[in-house]
Amino acid sequence: MRTEIGRDLALADALQQPVWTARPDGTVDYANPFWRAYTGLSWEASLGGGWANAVHPDDVAAIETRWREAACTGEAYEIEYRFRGADGTYRWHIARVAPIRETDGMVARWVGTALDIDDRRRAEAALRTSEARYRDVVDNATDIVYTLLLDGTISAVNPAVERVLGYRPDELVSGSVEAIIAPDHRERTRDVLQRKLAGEEVSAYDLDLVAKDGRRVTVEVNSRRAVVDGQPVAIHGIARDVSARRALEREQQEFLEAVSHDLKNPLTAVRGQAQHLRRLLHRGLVDPPDKLTQALDAIEASATRMRVQLDELQDLARLRAGHPLELQAAPTDLAALIRAAAEDAQASTGHHRIRVEAPAALWGRWDALRLRRVLDNLLGNAVKYSPGGGRIGVTVEEVSREGIGWVVVGVRDEGLGIPAVDLPHIFERYRRGGNVTGRIGGAGIGLAGSRQVVEQHGGTITVVSVEGQGSTFTLALPL
């Protein structure tokens, strides 16, 4: 057989891959030793036309179809199929089959070789799976995942951009990233991009983007450069929306500054009174019935203010930790509590006239200290946010709702009022009217704490306000 095939097939005997030849009718007349060893077929079983069922049982139809097409066209072809080895395992191969022609151009024989590509196919399949999983993760990520070209063009961005900025990915791809960067942050972005491309490590940084509706959205950016053959080709990055977190951090910073300011005032008063008493004692000028009593009263009042503020902070800490307040309910004359709070508030101002309309007594079971703090907060706000002075009215009345007795307390001022946009949020922690922020100090915790105290008593607190005309806070407590 080898003599008939000729000397050109001598090399095929030494190749470490399958080689075979076939006549134009499809009959195989040669299979090299590697082919026979790989398939485990004898010399005789290798020849003829039945070997395909034994070697390629899962791909016979495809092999026969491709052979018939080649027999008609006389053109070389390639085909991928599975080889069954002598051990029964299957491995993918790519076969390349070409015609050997006579001098008149007729096909005298077909010669084929097969190359094992099983490892490559497995690697490609694993890569496709990995890419699919990566794409699934990216497409479902809540953070913006993007790729920038060297000139700042957005070449890819995931669907999260629509949730964060309102843009569909196709609206941004092929456009400049600077189109969605706040103008005052663009220079910084250019600087970071150049440093990244130069190979410098740049830590995460905040960047303001402009949403489709014009909002500024603060994102925290992490990125790295992509390098091919030692040269940067793109920037891959993740942008996380941190607007809410940054706003909370600012509110907390303002809160700490306001608390620090509020506590420093009574501390300064205590220190000043103590120093004054020391000077008087040093000079022997202390008059116990008069000056000493007055100084001690001032110290006690300042200490009380600090205690109230610290109690409020303690309640706030409990609420933030998810723990309800532990009310100390006891028989309390609410009318007397209100009059005492009003007297103290009146003593703190010479520009306001506080008037109380209340019954002689109104008894119920309440936490007197915490309700006093609510009243101090409402009256203190009425004074604070009426910088021009004016009247402050406090009304107290009993009402019946569905057979249940309630006491309703109203605190009305003629001050700055609350902007309509802030009204729905005024009882939230760290929230204040936009017309007083930066003008009048405050921590934004008093009303939030008041609401919690009132609600834990089973009551409600509401507000009606018109900016520039004043506010009326109403709290209702069940008797």
The residue-averaged pLDDT reads: 82
How many helices does DSSP assign?
15
Radius of gyration from the alpha-carbon trace, in angstroms: 43 Å
Range of strand content? 25-35%
Please outline the helices and strands:
Elements lengths: L1 H4 L4 H5 L4 E4 L5 E4 L1 H7 L3 H4 L4 H5 L4 H14 L3 E8 L5 E12 L5 E10 L1 H23 L3 E6 L4 E4 L2 H6 L3 H4 L13 H12 L7 E6 L5 E13 L2 E11 L1 H41 L4 H33 L9 E4 H14 L4 E6 L5 E4 L1 H17 L5 E12 L2 E9 L33 H11 L3 E7 L3 E9 L1
Parallel strand pairs: 12-14
Antiparallel strand pairs: 1-2, 1-5, 3-4, 4-5, 6-7, 6-10, 8-9, 9-10, 11-13, 14-15, 15-17, 16-17
Helix pairs in contact: 11-12, 13-14, 14-15
Structural overview:
With 479 residues, the protein is an alpha+beta fold. 42% of the residues lie in helices and 27% in strands. The chain is built from 15 helices and 17 strands. The strands form four sheets. A five-stranded antiparallel beta sheet has the order 2-1-5-4-3, sandwiched between helices. Strand 3 and strand 4 form a beta hairpin. Helix 11 runs antiparallel to helix 12 and helix 13 (334-347) runs parallel beside helix 14. The protein is elongated and about 135 Å long.
